[in-house]
Specification:
This protein is of the alpha+beta class. The protein has eight helices and four strands. It folds into two domains: 93 residues, Arc Repressor Mutant, subunit A (Orthogonal Bundle); 112 residues, no CATH class. It has a two-stranded antiparallel sheet with strand order 1-2.
Length: 227
């Protein structure tokens, strides 16, 4: 009879990779569940489900703690009374973990049911000429007239974030400015002064990254007189 060898923990996994493995397991559990109770899993059950990926018990514990703190999964403690052999009734608690809407959104990416928190309480369909464009995690709401330029800015943002010619500080600054520019296009009359000022900084970073095609097309639109 051959001996079954335990899977050795993989030390080459990063913390984020370990968290992703745990989150993926809970997502697959959610997809396969037939009731709200079957979505929940104990830490030992999660470990048994991911140990073949090379995670140790401590990796699962640390990943669960982090995912709860960051709001990707929820933790629930259920207390029941049990009867001991001596006839005494004592409470026993069991901790369960399950993926929440934030974790599901992360795994499923775009969804037409997802709303940015900033717009709770507002019926976007009541705003004339509004349109909803799908972003990478949240829906981006822009005026219909500015859909094309908002999409170009989103594409530029993605290219800058992937550029090897930029450091993290440059990427963060450009992405933040692009986000602010996009918010201007939510209004029927964007502030041209704000857009031109922000574009000046984004343009400089885009040129370093070599995104010259975006620089030309977006720059021409920003400086144009057609809006």
């Amino acid at each position: 009879m051959s001996e079954v060898k335990a899977v050795a923990p993989r030390s080459n996994l990063t913390d984020d990779q370990k968290r992703e493995i745990v989150l993926d397991f809970l997502y697959r559990t959610y997809r396969a569940s037939r009731s709200h109770l079957s979505v929940r899993k104990k830490a030992t059950e999660i470990y048994n489900g991911v140990k073949e990926s090379g995670l140790a018990t401590k990796d699962v514990g640390a990943s669960l703690h982090y995912l709860v703190q960051e709001g990707w999964i929820d933790k629930e403690e259920v207390t029941k009374e049990i009867t001991t052999e001596g006839g005494m009734r004592v409470p026993r608690s069991t901790v369960y973990y399950y993926i929440n809407k934030n974790g599901i959104d992360r795994k499923e990416r775009d969804s037409s049911f997802r709303l940015e928190q900033n717009y709770h309480g507002i019926n976007i369909s009541n705003i004339q000429d509004s349109i909803i464009s799908l972003g990478d995690r949240n829906r981006i709401i822009v005026n219909r007239r500015f859909e094309d330029i908002a999409c170009r800015l989103s594409e530029l943002r993605d290219e800058l974030l992937q550029s090897t010619n930029l450091n993290d500080e440059q990427k963060f600054a450009a992405a933040t400015d692009i986000e602010t520019m996009t918010k201007q296009f939510q209004k029927p009359n964007p502030d041209r002064t704000v857009l031109e000022r922000l574009w000046c900084g984004v343009k400089s970073v885009a040129e370093i990254a070599g995104a010259l095609d975006f620089v030309g097309r977006i720059g021409e639109w920003i400086s144009g007189q057609h809006w």
